[in-house]
Task: structure prediction
Amino acid sequence: MKNLRKHVCLVLLAAVLLGLCACGATPTQPTPAATAAPATAEPTAAPTPTPAATARPTVPGFIASEIPNPDWVKRWGDCEIYNDTFYIAATATDGAPAVAAFDTRTDEFTRIDITVSDLHNPLIYRVSAAADTLWLLAQETQTAEERNSGGYTEDLHEYIIRVNLVSGEQTRSVVNFWDDINAPLYFLLALDNDRALTGNDFCEEHPIYLIDGNANVIGAPETVLYGNPARVWVNGVRWVATPEGLAQLDPTTVQYSTPIPDLINQPALYSSSLGHFLVTRDNVLYNYDPAAQQATEVLKWADVAFSYKRLYGRAGLENVNGDIYHLTDRITKVSMREVPVKDTLTLACLGDTTSYGYPTDGWGMTNKTFVCSDALMDAVLRFNNSDPDYRVEIKPYIYSSEEERTRLLIDLAANGEVDIIDTSLLPDGAADSSMLVDMLPYLDADADISREDFIPGLLNAMMRNGGLYEYIDRFDVLTVTTRQNFAAGGEWTAERMRQLMEENPDLRTENNIENLVLLFSRAATAEFMDTANASCRFTDPAFGEWLKLLKQLASITRTEWHTDEYTFFLEYDFPGSVGGKSPTVAGGEYAVVGFPNAEETGSYFMRYGAPTAMGVGSYITESMMTMGANTSLGIMAASANADGAWRFIKTYMSGTEDVDLLYGVPANKVSFERAVENELDKEPADRPAYQQFTESDAEYIRSIVYGTTKYVLNSPEVMDTMRTVLNAYLGGQYTEETASAQLQSRLSIYLAEQYG
Result:
């Protein structure tokens, strides 16, 4: 890997130097305004009229746009598509269950209120349509308060609800053939106005029930369906997923035709009113002719900035007009039209090789799946639809492939081949080299965005050698949590932490030794290394206290997962843990205390909190969530379109409303505050009792995020050195003094080379 990094650096530096020689200095600042010409004694000629701007030529292409959700919708549920209309189960902002009908021929929503107010905490969880009837599966459920207090004592039922789409008349029947409320009926498949298929599972041991409109069983066909069966309509004919492939379903006999094995287990299969299916493979959308069993490419999802991973488990449609719709948390529309020819900005970003458990042959999912972050895709979509001069073209690289890495080297060595790059593709230390443009002059000159728009500690965490060479959208907070009674009173020091462990010998830390070493290593880079001055202080007595603390924590590591009996827990994804695994919210049993630090907070932003004498301690870390939750972007110095590249990165910096603390702290203040508000807006039922989120919790999290200033050094070389030395110390090979001396010597050299 070291040799690869060195090779990349040499290639890139050579490319940059060649570009400078051939073209003059690469612009690294916004283009300055023109200076007025000096006055002269000669008469001034009349100015030549500026020609009117020439309209850009157009070419046929696809345009993606987003359909805003209706104001009354709080969240979406199950969906069925029928007659070019999406029928979507919804929870309204007033808490009432409803169905939204979205007509793709008019792009309009209609609310269908369902009469269930007399039921106990009802939920509509399956939707299906056929002929003139909308079929619904509804379930009575316990409230969060009831679950926390021992449960609801009365019987809870499931219901079949039918809605006549012409008259609006509704009928409701209780399900009496399936009474296990802990294993509800899993699917609903409407056949016509009076018959539907339902069942609990999709294997041979569990029967499929043929029911009438009053929820009476009228048959038990031997048909075997697959999963919550894929349901698509092609020219009025229903097709369903079976274990052997996609097949036509005869609504009269309830039998299916010979399956098409090419179309098995499809996560993204679209209905169509134009005589074919739409199916996705390798980030490409194809129309698939079921008669000829042939596929023709329609478009590449990346070209319309649609995140491929969003295609999973949701409904899609090609309507009679040829417009393509897809439902996620909102509806995206892709239309063929004349689009203006714009200058292209190439965005090189990280792909993925994940197959998500789907087949890798035929027309199943392959191992070349491209998954870019939703936030990045949203930014590309917004930019391409709004900027008059530029469009972003995504160029993914599967960086685990040697072939792909070589392709990246070639593209980067070619001046101007890449304009914007996900900096995670670059070698260690490249983020502040001559390979990238310092974006700070752009930020300071921009009228729409400024340094004040970002959380100060996070903006500082992105800076290298006084410049902003990459923008990182999300960070985690590395910190330490403990019991409220342990946190109360007295200054927070390593000595006090060790004392608490001695006074409570039966309690454990929930971190194992490997995890302790990793997180202590990260925290130590934030606390004892200073990149601004290219120095470190591992021989400081304070680091010796950290070593003693690490050894004592290593002696009380957990023996089983998820015990509640712990003294300290090192959190690497705070405040994401608020919505997930750990009860670290304010007002609960636990408190954030951080690593011991005599200066300020002992929490660290991780580009990853630790105890302090002055309050909580945490460190910033770069968000390590998978699935592309974190993206870092920079502008290549060899780009001929640096101004346009900045315009896109500014769009990305602005953030979106769809943010969640689960995936880290957004660097943008507005996005962070939206994320906090989104946590407050979550239903109590979405959280266990110990994770209820209140205004006091929100203020607590704000105080930690805004009070954290130090950040973890994101360097594999440093981390390797840290872990090697700390493991040797725990193994008895080093004393505290020799471990400190080793780190001081080795990391002083690294800092001098990289930051000196």
Remarks:
- The first helix runs from residue 2 to 23.
- The chain has a mean pLDDT of 78.
- DSSP finds 15 helices and 37 strands in the chain.
